């Protein structure tokens, strides 16, 4: 079991679970059960967590206990809840679903879904030739044990050279290779954050970062990003000085999910403020290579660091391929050694063959990344055009890079829209997935990583569902699926 959620906590997560006119014509117990399934589907409510007692949840929602009892009964019937007399009720995985690699769950028959829940591209054509070349390099490593906690030297040098080319002199000793960017974040948190430590994050932010922080039982404070402008400098710096967190996790390059780019002047001020209050900065550079429309990316945040306060993390998933689980940490050489000592108690090392593939991809980075930028610009513009035509009431700030749009909807319907979209074969990541306690219901993340034709088709289906939400009769419910 992973713990218990209290009535007031679940009420905050549920938000406006029965506020839509179309859903008012459905029984409240069905709307409540569907909302709980939605929370399970997008990871805001974990599997194996004990739900509040019926009376407690009824009081928190200000509804009758009969409604909660009926909702729990429906959840048991659909396989989302297990109950034992005198012990309570726990969330569970339905029998016709599986746990996906994201840690969330998905139906067994979801292959035809237009998946706008995952912001990642398919593999580039150069991957196959890189893999073949890597197998030719592999024999020279076979005489050893194959454990390289900081990574093979060729890859660490290649990553260090990329930082140096961006204006941040870096040696291989300052690089540790990890099994993806999320793994890099987890290792940094293990080293730098004691359970219950304080962390400042942007709102909205990357959901899996929030999950990693929850795993460390972190106390989280947030800095809200403006939908059209991003970071408000005085507010961000003031929050740092006021809360004095142990860590701050920021995504300055084409922020996920908003796409904002932090200006150089603010980067310098954030580093200075962090040093003054004793805060270490974790800078997620997952999207740094994916500038669009010729946008110039400012110097790395670590450029302004003189006191080893900045730890940068990045990886191959966004510009190359998510199936190549290669990430890295850039820090001071002593910090890298401490991270390696932490790592050996977790997974020992990253696969040598995958690292060799990464070396060859990085050697061809200029051509691969240039192709990715062209592809993403075309797909972004197709998505923007479809939204302008089909959903003109939605507000979208055009991102200058990255892979996602952050859309402000015409009402607080994000979670309801995501549940309804499953019925027409579209998977969405609702806004609350990117924040805390059920906020951001007016927002939706829309990645432009699918082919342009699929994006246009998905928007057409979403538009039909959006207009149906306000006038639909009885809601038809189905088991929800993974949102990653």
Automatic annotation (TrEMBL):
<dbReference type="InterPro" id="IPR036390">
    <property type="entry name" value="WH_DNA-bd_sf"/>
</dbReference>
<keyword id="KW-0805">Transcription regulation</keyword>
<keyword id="KW-0238">DNA-binding</keyword>
<protein>
    <submittedName>
        <fullName>Putative HTH-type transcriptional regulat or YdcR</fullName>
    </submittedName>
</protein>
<dbReference type="InterPro" id="IPR036388">
    <property type="entry name" value="WH-like_DNA-bd_sf"/>
</dbReference>
<dbReference type="InterPro" id="IPR004839">
    <property type="entry name" value="Aminotransferase_I/II_large"/>
</dbReference>
<dbReference type="InterPro" id="IPR051446">
    <property type="entry name" value="HTH_trans_reg/aminotransferase"/>
</dbReference>
<dbReference type="Pfam" id="PF00392">
    <property type="entry name" value="GntR"/>
</dbReference>
<dbReference type="InterPro" id="IPR015424">
    <property type="entry name" value="PyrdxlP-dep_Trfase"/>
</dbReference>
<dbReference type="Pfam" id="PF00155">
    <property type="entry name" value="Aminotran_1_2"/>
</dbReference>
<keyword id="KW-0663">Pyridoxal phosphate</keyword>
<comment type="similarity">
    <text>In the C-terminal section; belongs to the class-I pyridoxal-phosphate-dependent aminotransferase family.</text>
</comment>
<dbReference type="InterPro" id="IPR015421">
    <property type="entry name" value="PyrdxlP-dep_Trfase_major"/>
</dbReference>
<feature type="domain" description="HTH gntR-type">
    <location>
        <begin position="26"/>
        <end position="94"/>
    </location>
</feature>
<keyword id="KW-0804">Transcription</keyword>
<dbReference type="InterPro" id="IPR015422">
    <property type="entry name" value="PyrdxlP-dep_Trfase_small"/>
</dbReference>
<dbReference type="GO" id="GO:0003700">
    <property type="term" value="F:DNA-binding transcription factor activity"/>
</dbReference>
<dbReference type="GO" id="GO:0030170">
    <property type="term" value="F:pyridoxal phosphate binding"/>
</dbReference>
<dbReference type="InterPro" id="IPR000524">
    <property type="entry name" value="Tscrpt_reg_HTH_GntR"/>
</dbReference>
<dbReference type="GO" id="GO:0003677">
    <property type="term" value="F:DNA binding"/>
</dbReference>
């Amino acid at each position: 079991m992973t713990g218990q959620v209290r009535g007031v906590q679940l009420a905050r997560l549920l938000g406006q679970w029965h506020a839509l006119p179309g859903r008012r014509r459905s029984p409240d117990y069905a709307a409540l059960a569907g909302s709980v399934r939605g929370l399970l589907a997008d990871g805001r409510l974990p599997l194996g967590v004990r739900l509040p007692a019926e009376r407690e949840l009824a009081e928190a929602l200000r509804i009758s206990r009969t409604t909660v009892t009926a909702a729990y009964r429906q959840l048991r019937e659909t396989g989302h809840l297990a109950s034992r007399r005198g012990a309570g009720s726990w969330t569970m995985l339905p029998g016709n679903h599986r746990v996906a690699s994201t840690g969330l769950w998905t139906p067994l028959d979801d292959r035809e879904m237009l998946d706008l829940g995952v912001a990642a591209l398919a593999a580039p054509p150069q991957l196959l030739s890189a893999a073949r070349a890597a197998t030719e390099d592999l024999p020279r490593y076979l005489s050893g044990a194959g454990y390289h906690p900081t990574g093979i030297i060729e890859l660490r040098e290649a990553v260090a050279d990329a930082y140096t080319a961006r204006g941040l002199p870096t040696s291989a000793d300052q690089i540790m290779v990890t099994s993806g960017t999320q793994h890099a974040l987890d290792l940094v948190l293990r080293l730098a954050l004691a359970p219950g430590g304080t962390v400042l994050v942007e709102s909205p932010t990357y959901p899996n970062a929030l999950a990693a922080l929850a795993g460390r039982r972190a106390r989280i404070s947030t800095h809200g990003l403006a939908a059209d402008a991003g970071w408000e400098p005085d507010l961000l710096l003031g929050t740092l000085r006021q809360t004095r967190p142990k860590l701050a996790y920021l995504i300055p390059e084409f922020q996920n999910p908003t796409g904002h780019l932090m200006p150089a002047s603010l980067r310098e001020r954030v580093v200075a403020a962090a040093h003054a209050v004793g805060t270490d900065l974790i800078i997620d550079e997952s999207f740094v290579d994916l500038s669009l429309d010729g946008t110039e990316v400012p110097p790395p945040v670590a450029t302004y660091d003189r006191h080893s306060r900045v730890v940068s993390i990045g990886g191959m998933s966004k510009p190359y391929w998510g199936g190549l689980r290669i990430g890295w940490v850039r820090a001071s050489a002593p910090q890298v050694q401490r991270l390696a000592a932490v790592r050996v108690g977790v997974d020992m090392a990253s696969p040598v063959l995958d690292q060799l593939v990464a070396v060859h991809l990085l050697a061809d980075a200029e051509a691969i990344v240039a192709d990715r930028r062209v592809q993403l610009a075309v797909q972004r513009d197709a998505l923007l055009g479809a939204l302008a035509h089909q959903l003109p009431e939605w507000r979208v700030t055009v991102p200058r890079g990255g892979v996602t749009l952050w859309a402000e909807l015409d009402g607080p319907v994000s979670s309801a829209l995501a549940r309804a979209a499953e019925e027409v074969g579209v998977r969405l990541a609702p806004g609350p997935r990117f924040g805390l306690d059920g906020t951001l219901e007016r927002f939706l993340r829309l990645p432009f990583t699918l082919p342009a034709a699929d994006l246009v088709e998905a928007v057409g289906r979403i538009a039909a569902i959006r207009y149906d939400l306000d006038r639909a009769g009885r809601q038809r419910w189905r088991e929800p699926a993974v949102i990653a």
